[in-house]
Prior knowledge:
24 helices; alpha/beta; flat; single chain
Amino acid sequence: MIPITLTLEGFYSYQEKQVIDFTQLIQAGLFGIFGKVGSGKSSILEAISFGLYGESERLNARDNRAYNMMNLKSDRMSIDFEFFNFKEKKYRIYREFKRNSKRFDDVKRGDAVLYQWKEEQWIPLPDLNVEEVIGLSYENFKRTIIIPQGKFKEFIELGGKDRTKMMQEIFGLDRFDLTGKTKALYSETRQKYDHLQGQLQRFTTLTKEQIDEVKVQHQKQEQQLKQMTLVFKQEQERYQQLKAVKLDFEALEESRTTLRELEQKEGEVKAQELALLQYEKVEKVFRSLLVEKQQTTLKLNEKTANYQVKLGEFQTKQNQYIQVKETFTTLEKQYESLERERTELAELQLVQAIQETEVTKKTLTERLVKGQEVVVATKKELEQKQILLLAGEKQLKQLKENRVDPMRLIALDKWFTDFEYLEKAAGEWADKQKQLQQEIQRLVQTLEQFEFTTEEEWRERIAKQRTVNQQLHLLVTKELNQLRVSQQLSHYASALHDGEACPLCGALEHPAILEGEDVSKSMQDLEMKLEKIQDDEQILNRKEREIQALLDKKHLLEIQDSEAVNHRKEKQEELIRHQAAYCWNEIESGNKAQLEQLKQQAVQVNQAIEKAENQQQQTIKEVDVVRNNLEKYAEALADIELKQARLEAEIDAKEQQIRLIKLSEKIVVKKEILELEIKAKEQHIVEVEQAYKSQAQLLQQLVPILASLETELKNIQTIQEELTASLQHIDLGVKQGLEVFQFESVQEVEVVLAKNIAVEETRASIQAFMLKIEVLRNQVQQLSKKLESIAFDLPHFQQMELTVTALEQQVKEQTTLVAKVAGEIERLEQDYKEKETLLDQFAQVEKRLKNINLLDNMFKGAGFVNYVSSIYLINLCDIANQRFHRLTHNQLSLQLNESNEFEIIDYLNNGKARSVKTLSGGQSFQVSLSLALALAESVQSLSKSNKNFFFIDEGFGTQDAESVNIVFETLSSLHKENRIVGIISHVDELQERIPLSLSIVKDEEKGSRVLTS
């Protein structure tokens, strides 16, 4: 993350809008933000963190964060931050808060929008996914990009578990945590293993021999089925021949019986055929005429009855119309006189309104008198407050004239602080020089105990002693090897026998066998000598290391002593220059008591000014309150007077509208009586209007009804005449038909039609009967001729039928048995194939399960992740030590113990390890800085960006001048590595050495302001 610009307004002490352009600061590589304590330096970093993540180090959501962050003199707070992310893409985050105008402590969250720079414009993004954009969580952002006050040492003080978790989050080590995947894979594979094992249980008894036995049985059953099928077919053919003869005899007998029955019904069917012909002719002529006559007669009767009903309705409505007409004429006269009644009612209502207005006017007059008294009192109070305000301004002016110039006092106080610092620094360097010389003297005395004269002589003596030891070691080793060879040859010689091959040369004859002596005692003596030589060599090496360590330490102390002399001289010279730069006449040079007295006097004057200003502000507020009240009261009086004038005009206008009634008589009538009179007149008007409208509406309804009924009566008469003519025409057609068929009356026709013969069905039935009887006669004739010379034995046929049935059942049972055995063979072969497949799968799954179990044990308990995290921490230590060694003059080193806790290696104490908690404040800063830089470089290197950014907000006050120099050189060197470092400090020495920085100045009226230096 590389900052571009930061715009603040209403944030903590930043009352007015401030814009910080980081562009030139970033190009400088190393820059600073400086200012007095409480000026607002750290607020810049908090604004960046809060703008990005909506989180604050100082305040959380329970602390009413929005209210406490907003400047008390501001009604709006905004943060606008532009930056490049690790992919060098340009983003902008904007947050805004507004104060409730009615509740001072109510601060509402406004807009919070994340933008991305695309196509030369800011495009708002739908989500505030800042972690994805930055690539870090808020906690890790504080540890690697911006380190706020109080958090610099957090990384080294984290527990092993928390530090491992942090490394996992920062470097994405969760990708090495395969515990869940291996467990899921193991569970899945175990289920397959158990499932396959369960499936194989079904095939434990299945073998190839069992299948072969079932196949032999199947062949026997098939041979038996072939024999039974051959016998069944022979008997089946004989049976079918006899069955055909039997069927012919049965068919002949059945046909003769059916023919006799049909011949008995033949005469009846012929009579039915004659009746059908008569019915068809009569129905064709008379059916439609009789139906039409019946329908026409029904319609005529219906219309006649309807005419009588409508005639009665018409007479009733006509009588009702006459009565309503008479009532309407009477009401019409009353309705015409309603206009005067309404006018009188309106004038009575005006009188009622005048009475109510008079009451309101009286109330306003009383309020006007009281309000005039309040206005007079408020004017007097305002004059008194203004007198107090003028006196307060005069007092405040006198106090400010007596105030000491704060900038001059600050400069004077800084001179004394620097003077004490230089005196102390010179004394400390003198003490350190004395301490170093004492330590060098102790080292010289220790070396004298080792008979040490000069380093060259000592090295020469050590080299001679080591040469002697090496020569003795070679001689003893050579002699010992010879004795060992002699002993081994004696052993071989004692084992030689004639006729047996020599293990060395392979000869079978051994004319001169070596006779050896016992050399064990000599070998033991030589081995003891060899051990003593080795012990001497170790003692010599140990003594050499001890003297070398003392010499290295002495050399280091001599360098430090020379540096201490130079530093002491520098501080003394600075002290002389500082004393010569004293230019104040308020107090004597070096008189600290007078300075404290002057500061106390300045504090008292400032307190008095502050108290007077507060009192003056309170008086101003009171004057504003009284003035506002006076204006409000005056506006209220004017409003009352205006309302009175309006009421008087309203009364005059209403009196001029009253003409029919006497106003003088009605105005004195009581309110209740007047209201009853108005209600009675309103009710009378309403009743007359409702009755008049009701009768008029009824008349309007009756007129169309009478006209409609009259029209309906005429239509019914016309239809009656048409139906009568149609009925006469039908009677003529019936008469002509009777003459044609020679019927005497219509009743004879109705008897024929009453039969209701289904013509098509009856004709089809008669034709079917005639066809069936003819077919049976032909069938009987043909069968009789066919069976004249054939005889049929029924008992023999029945016996044959039983035999064939029994054979058929046997064949079916044998077929079922053969099919069952064949199915059993197929099932067994399929099961055997499945068993072989399952065995192969089971072997593979069993092997896979063992491998997965091995992986599960490896990843169990995040062990592998912890191991990877340890590797990352070790690499981090190595990177951090590159700077930590230089910062501590190679006296200290950082390492990890077995519990992944940080430890310090102290080379001034023989390289012993100790806890990081034993470090001084300055040393803690040095190791924290080294680790923080290493961590930031490691994290930001993952983004592969060209430049990386790092911000520090503490620590430099704990360093002495020499350490500050080393830290400054370390930070300066980062620029060559494309690292950008920003520091926040109040150390003046750093500000003088950093070429480009920001100065934060806090103004009492305008708040904090940002200046570029």
